[in-house]
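User:
Note these tokens:
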Amino acid sequence: MKHLAYIARACLTATVLAACGGATVLQQSAQGAGGARTVEVRVPANPLWLNTGVSVSKGEAVSIAASGTWCFGSRDCNGPDGSPTYFNLWWDEFEVFDLGDHARLLGFIGSYPYQGKWGKASFFPQTSGYLSIGSGQTFVAARAGQLWLGINDDAVSKNDGDNSGALHPVIITTGRRDVTGPIIKIKAPTTVYPLDSTTAAHYSCTDPDDAVASCAGPVASGRPFNTSRSGPSIFTVVASDSHGNVSSATVSYTVGSVGVAPLVYPFKPQSVGTASAAKTVRLFNRQTTALNISSTSTTGDFKVTATTCGSVLAAEKSCSTNVAFVPSTTGSRQGQLQVQTDAGAQSVILVGVGK
């Protein structure tokens, strides 16, 4: 059986792809503005790595959506996402790289995908240009080179004569642009609002790379949001740009006479035994009378570093408490800031990761 490296060198141009059993181009759009184009190819199950004929640049955005079915021998047939039945197969050299999905559609960017010696644990270092594709993936190319597609079978280091069927990926290259959606900023709602008050939402969507196609929340920016229900609520804004990239942002707010904001506060990863920069939590008194505060405390790997909240908070006022994250061990950590008042206990969920 021929070594894949020799097959790869013979298949570097679209002209000879069909001759070496490579990817057959089914449809290709005209190249548009910024180098954007769409290529649909047929990737047979044998040989296992195929040159799509698509060259990508470092930093270029690429989207791949795949369908189809292929079979290895008479044992099993799979779509592009592979088969969980073959999780942890000892001969699946992609197991660590591809989270155990045997028979999954994979990608590679470079001159040809063969590296190292089949059977070695280091056969597929993830930083060397390999990508997990499955039935769909959008990514920014970390390197320049030819785009290859392959199937995770026998470490895809050789042809497998007992394979049959094909996958049908549609490849969209979009030129040198990012794949992120618009940036969303929500200024209101974010704090505590009296029941049945009239307060307008205020949010915006911007995108430095593409035109913003849509930017919508539960109500339009400038219109009143819902304050008819007491307790915590969420407000989500979804935006898209002219290339179909989508983003969303969610904030929490409270409706009632007393509350804290934000309701959930995440901290950045922090080294074990060291204190993070402090984050500020605000306590709001929307009553027409003073609020009595009996205690302010934390649970978990979090500590109060400063507070302006005394034993009494005047009517229609707010105060602040600063909290730091001091992880005692690595991994996910969670705790609470708890403020006991005569209007009930107020709490903020605190989360962080120790490193």
